[in-house]
Amino acid sequence: MASQNAVTEGTPARPRRQARGQQRIEEILHAAAAVFGEQGYDATTTNSIAKRAGISPGSLYQFFKNKDDIARALAEHYATQLTALRAGVFTIENLDGAGLEDTVDAVLGPLVAFNLAHPGFKALFARTDMPAGLRDAVTPIQVTIHHRVADLIAHFMPDRALDDIARIATVSIQLVRGMTPLITEADGPERDALTAELRTAVISYLSQQVARVPQHTRPRAARA
Amino acid sequence: MASQNAVTEGTPARPRRQARGQQRIEEILHAAAAVFGEQGYDATTTNSIAKRAGISPGSLYQFFKNKDDIARALAEHYATQLTALRAGVFTIENLDGAGLEDTVDAVLGPLVAFNLAHPGFKALFARTDMPAGLRDAVTPIQVTIHHRVADLIAHFMPDRALDDIARIATVSIQLVRGMTPLITEADGPERDALTAELRTAVISYLSQQVARVPQHTRPRAARA
DNA sequence: CTAAAATACGAGCAGATGCTCGTGTTGTCT
DNA sequence: AGACAACACGAGCATCTGCTCGTATTTTAG
């Protein structure tokens, strides 16, 4: 956005990255994701991230202001990948004619896969009590996610009040967030079973909500 | 390690408490619950607990071995009160003839009230990623809770396999745990609304599970 | 009353953690 | 080639946190 060249002084300490630096940044984020996923955010030390990335602490701080800054960058990284995921799989247009179950499947499947592929994700997003710095880093992205889910839900209950929709979206997200650590920490068949349980929980909750106002809505969720 | 007591050597460093000390212990636990609830477990310092309790750090460590020990004692304190709660409200015998909805209500209502009355509770139990010390402190009690919930659930689906029952109990508990922080942090009417949503989610999830095996079970959940 | 145990104090230690700083190396631009 | 910026290093600083220790006071036991 702002001019990063030497002439203007808009962003003081923002160096012009070279290719090496860009790669380092990605290596650091990769290492941070791994360590966050294994140890949790609080227990993760910046020195351990540097060690994991194969660099010195000093080098790390050439690319990131502090620990929260790493979390913020990683959160944005995840947000970007989630956006790509959405574009590829569960666009609203693609699901407009689909039923509730198919929609939930279309969202939940890739989301679980994403959590398994990116162990750091749940460490940043699936916590209920966050330190202030982490909270600031992830809330904007949580708001974005909430908007998308609310849009999706609104399609199935168009005559509900907006704050009802918002609340149902919040609850749905929270159901998923609560189950995610259980799923990622389980192995093989138990993991599949828990994923199926999550699917059941979300679908039955949302079905109940759809059925709640049967006048205007056509509650035939399974077939369009 | 050396025995400082005269006669028996059963519990080496366990002094014979006087009335004053017992009261101090309760004051410390009360203070710890408050600070845990406000700051979270990690952010809470032992010195801040001592300050809140109106004593010096040295005095605190005359009654508790370390920070985890405080958490463990507080967790046991909560477990005791929960047991009293169960005895008073939702004994299995009392609910044997009741339907699923009434049973869930009988559990969820007092449980939410308990969470509101004891702000430290969710800081100890409602976290998904716990430091090792805290995990050790609360897991025994979580196992107890899980047993009780599984017993309750088993009454509604007697022909399900034991690990199915266990998994359903785990998921149910997780649904409640995930929603608890949302509920306690909300105010007035929004809190009530979220509580109602939690009720809906749990009941619809469990109803779905009860309906899944209709052969042997009599799925007349609402009326006995 | 007296000795021992329990309670109380609070300055401060040992260890850890996020982060810095001085210095040296690599890359880029002219 | 020279100059400057980006990159890299790692010992170590400043700070915090859980906890201790020497000491003083209160309570209990005999």
From TrEMBL, chains A, B:
Source superkingdom: Bacteria
Residues in the signal sequence: none
Coiled coil, from the record: none
DNA-binding region: 45-64
TM ranges: none
Domain HTH tetR-type per the UniProt entry, residue ranges: 22-82
Region of interest: Disordered: 1-21
The protein, known as: TetR/AcrR family transcriptional regulator
Organism of provenance: Occultella gossypii
Lineage start: Bacteria, Bacillati, Actinomycetota, Actinomycetes, Micrococcales
